Amino acid sequence: MLLASNAELRVRLEEAEETLRAIRSGDVDALVVEGPAGSQIFTLQGVDAQSNQFRGEILAQISDAVVAVDNEERITYLNAAAERQYGVAASEVLGRCMRELWTSQWPQETDEVAARNALRETGYWRGENVHRKRNGERIHVESAVICLHDTAGEEIGFLATIRDITERKDVEERLRRAAEEAEAASQAKDDFLAALSHELRTPLTPVLMSAAAMELDPELPDAIREQLSMIRRNIQLEARLIDDLLDLTHITRRTLQIHQVVVDVHELLGHTEEIVRSEAVGHDRVVEFRLEARQYHVIADPTRLQQVFWNLIKNALKFSEDGGRVTVRTSNPSPHRFAVSVEDHGIGIAQEALGRIFSAFDQGELKGRHRFGGLGLGLAISKGIVDLHNGSLHVESEGRGRGATFTVELETTAPKRNRESPVQNLPARTMPLRLLIVEDHEPTLATMKRLLERSGYRVCSAATMSEALAVASATKCDVLISDLGLPDGSGLDLMREIHQRYGWPGIALTGYGMEEDIRRVTESGFGAHLVKPIDIAQLRATIERLLAATETPEEVPRFANGAQRTSGARSGNLGEKAADHLKPKKRSEKKSTGQ
Amino acid sequence: MEAARRGQSEERYLLRLYIAGTTPRSNRAIVNIRKICEEHLKGRYELEVVDVMKNPSLAAGEQIIAAPTLVKKLPLPLRRFIGDLSETERILLGLDLRKQEDNP
C-alpha cells in the first residue's frame, strides 16, 4: 500500500518536473493560470510563432481545401476550408487515414495509376476526379498535389490543394445538354423543313408538267394558253419560296454545296435578262443591262450565281415605283476584280437599316412589309452564296426614297470555255426509247407517263420497287426514272439492283434536294438527279444527255459532274426554263450554257 | 508480450488532449496521439480534443497548466503528458502499453 502510493507520488513528481522542463524548452504553446477571475490563457511566442501564425492565417483564409498527409496517407494537416468541404473538425480527423475523409473515384482505373506515377516521378500531379465524402455526397474536385520532403530531402508525404468544382461541372453539364438539345432541335427543324418542302413540292409536279405541256399546245386557244402560263408561273413562284427556305437552312448550317466552274458572267447575265423579261410581265418597270466589264470570267457555281443576280434584280423591281428603271451594270473596279451592281431608284433604305438588311426575316422595316410580299430571305441567301464564293455583297443607299445599289464583287479568272453540250447535236434515233418510270404518287406518275409518251417515248410504269423489278425482268428499257421514297424500299436500292442486273442508266427524282441525298444518289449509280417539281423539257434533256453519256464512255466523268449540276439547279433553273417556254424562238438563237 | 497484450485487451481508454488553437504543435500532438491509438488501441479508445483557447474553464477542472497536454483519464491512474507527443516510446510506456521488460 505504502509502496504503491510511493510509486504514485514519484510519477506525480516526474510529471511536474517534465512540465517545467517542457515549458523551459519551449515545448508548449500556452499556459493556463488560475486566478481570482477564473482561468487565464497565456500563449507563448516561440521563435517561429510569428511566421507560423502568418502561414496559418493564409491557409485558413484560402477558399480551397488544403490537406497534408504523411507517407502512410495519415492526415497531418487540414485547413478551415477542408473542414468545411468535408464536413469534419480537424481535431477529429488529424492522424486518421485520408480515406476516412473521402474516397477518390476516377473515370478510369488507369487514371489513378497515372496520377500516382506522376507524383512519384515528378513530385507533382494536377487533375480532376470525384471525391465521395463520409456522408456519401459526391463532389467534383480539381486537385494540385505536391510531394513533401523533410530537410534531409526524404519524402514525408504530400500536400493537396483541392477545389470543389461541382458547381462549375454542373453548369458545364447543363450547357452541354442545352447545346445538345438545341442541336437536336435545329436538326429536327431542318428535317422538318426538308420533309415539308418535299410534301409541298410533290403535288406541284403533275400540275406544273401538265400546265407547261398544255401551254405549248398549238391547238389550244391563245387566251387559255395565257391562263396556263399564269398557272405555271405561280406554281414556279411557290416552288421558289420553298427552295428559299431550304437554301437558307443550308446556308445557316454551312452545308450548302457549290460546284464551281469557269463562268462567263456576261453570258449568264444574258440568261438572267431572259428570265427578267418573262417575269416582269405586268410590271411597268424597265431593267437595263449595261455589260461594261472587260474581264468577266469568274470561278463560280453558275446556278447559284444566277440565283443571286435574280434575287437582286427581283428585289430592285419589287421596291421600285411603277415606271421605275433598274440598271444592271458590270465593271472591273480594279484589275482582277469583277463587279455586278444592281441599281434602283425606288424606296431606298434608311441608314440605320443598312446593317441588318442581309439578315434573314428582315425587310428593312416591318411597317408595310406586306405591301412588298415575299419571305424576305433573298438577300440573306444571296449574301450566303456570295460569301461561299469568297466574294463580297454590299449595299449603298443615300436614304429613304433615294434608291439603292447592291454590288457583288468577285475575283476574275482567265476565260476557258466549256465544250458545248452534246444535247444540241444528238444523232437521230431510229428506235423509240423505252423508259421505266417508278413513282408511287399516282397523279405524278400518270402525268409523266402521258407527257413522255407525247414526246415520243415508250413508257413502262411501276409504283413500287418490286413492281419495277418485275417490269425490268420482262421488258428491256433504256433509262430508269425513279422517285427515291418508294413504299417498299428506296429508289437508291432499286437503282443499284437495276444497274447491277441490266446496266441501265438512271435519273433520280426527289423533293428533298438535300446535299446528302445528292451524294447518295450519285453513289448508288444514278447518272442524274432532278428536284421536283419536274419540268418535262428538263427531264427530256436529261434523258438525252444521259444516253449520250452512256454511248460515249469517255464522256462519263464529265456527265457525272453535269448530273450534280443539274441536281443543284433549282430556282434559277426553273426560271430559265420558264423563259425557254415563253420564248422558244429566242432559245434557238441563244447559245446554251449547257444547263 | 502477447500475454501482456491479451491481459490489457479488454481495457477501454479515455484520453483527453488539451491544445491551444491551431498551432503546428497542437496539430502534431493530435496526429501523434491518434497514430499511437490507431496502432495500439484500435476500437477501444476515445480521444477527446479540447481547445483551451475556446474553452479555458474546461482546463481548470483538470489542473492543466500547459497546452498541449494529454490526459489519460481511464484506465486509472490518471497520467499527464506535455508537448507534441512525438516521443512515441515514452508515451507508450506512460499509457501502460509497454511493460518495462518489453523495451529492447
Tell me what you see in this structure.
- The complex is a heterodimer of chains A (595) and B (104).
- In chain A, the strands form six sheets. Chain A has a six-stranded antiparallel beta sheet. A five-stranded mixed beta sheet of chain A has the order 10-12-13-15-14. A five-stranded parallel beta sheet of chain A has the order 17-16-18-21-22, sandwiched between helices.
- In chain A, 46% of the residues lie in helices and 21% in strands.
- In chain A, α9 crosses α18 (571-582).
- Chain A is an alpha+beta fold.
- Chain B has 104 residues and is of the alpha+beta class.
- In chain B, strands 2-1-4-5 form a four-stranded mixed beta sheet.
- The radius of gyration of chain B is 14 Å and the shape is globular.
- Chain B starts with a helix and ends in a 10-residue tail after the last helix.
- The chains are: A alpha+beta (595), B alpha+beta (104).
- Chain A binds chain B through residues 8, 11, 15, 18-19, 22-23, 27-34, 38-41, 43, 49, 52, 56, 60, 70, 74-77, 90-92, 94-96, and chain B through 17, 19-28, 30-35, 37-38, 49, 51-53, 56-57, 59-60, 64-69, 77, 79-84.
- β1 (30-35) of chain A pairs antiparallel with β3 (66-67) of chain B, so a sheet runs across the interface.
